[in-house]
Each structure stands twice: as structure tokens, then as C-alpha cells.
Amino acid sequence: MMEWILLLEKSIWFGLAALGFGVLFSVPTRTMAAIYLMGAAGGLTKVVSMHLGLGIVMGTLAGAAVIGLLSIPAAHKRHAPPPVFAIPAVIPMVPGILAYRMMLGVIKLAGTVQPDTYTQVLSETVNNGLKVLFILMCLAGGVAIPMLITRKDSAKHIRFHTLIKD
Question: Quick one: which of 94, 28, 84 has its CA closest to 64?
Fold first, then answer.
């Protein structure tokens, strides 16, 4: 039971962080409650997925997909574009500590490293860097794919019809 309370606490912090980024980006006030709920839902999805053994990359993809899916109806209800909701809500899932560790490893590798620890430092640096890369790709894809799927007309289709009418 205590584990689930801690998971819910983390989702509250994800929501507050999303709200902070919403304030930072000066989004309309009418969108703040939805941004909080989406940040909390996406963060809860990520944390629960990781708790169930899915891993940080796939958990992040699941959380970003939840945010991307929730941003579509919120955009219609609050009369704002979906990125207004999705971007502040997804930013708290950016892997800052992994990027920091990767940069520390790069700095160590650029300096003098003992030959016996060089392989370990290189391995940890590449591991952290690849995790950062894949997590960022999952964040972008998880938010963008639901928006692309739910579009009624593609940009190519819209341009084609405007050329025919002229």
C-alpha cells in the first residue's frame, strides 16, 4: 500500500512540474488545470510502467503517449492547440540526471582517466547517452504520433485540394 502512495505522490509532483512549465511558457490560464492533470497522468503512467518492470524508455513512451492522447480532447474542450497542453506536461519527463551523468562521463574521458577504469567510464557514458537519446525520441514520438493519427487531413491533402480549386 505504501508503494502506491509513493507512486501517487510522484504523479502529484509531475503535475506540479508541468504546471510550472505552463506558467513559464505563458500558456492561457484556462489550460492550466488540464496541463496539471496531463502531467500527473503521464508521470503516473511512466512511474507505474517502470514499477511493473517495463523500463525507463518504454515507460516514458507510455507516459508521453498518454499525454499526447489526452491533449486532443483537451484542445477541443479548451479551444487551444494540442501542443499548448502536451509540451508543458511532457517536459518533466526529460531525463536530466542521465544527461548530467553522460556529460560527466564525457568530461572524465576528455581528461586523464586511469587505463583500468577507462572502459568502465566509457561504457557508463555511452549507456547513459543512449538512454537519453531513446527517451527523448520516445517523448517526441509519444506526443506527436497521437496528434498525427487523429488529424483528419494531412498537409499534402490540404495543399492538393487548394491547387485543384485554383
Answer: 94
Quick one: which H or E segment has residue 119? helix 115-149
As given in the structure block, the three cell numbers for residue 105 are: 562521463
Overall pTM > 0.70: yes
End-to-end CA distance of the chain: 65
Cβ neighbours, 10 Å, residue 125: 19
pLDDT at 160 over 70: no
Check: CB of residue 122 under 8 Å from CB of residue 145. Answer: no
Mean pLDDT over each residue of the chain, to the nearest integer: 88
Contact in structure between 11 and 92 (CB atoms under 8 Å): no
Find the radius of gyration of the CA atoms of the chain.
20
CB 143 within 8 A of CB 86: yes
Range of weakest confidence among 36-40, 50-54, 87-91: 50-54
Dist CA 116 CA 69 (whole Å)? 48
Nearest partner of 39 among 61, 16, 62, judged by Cα:
16
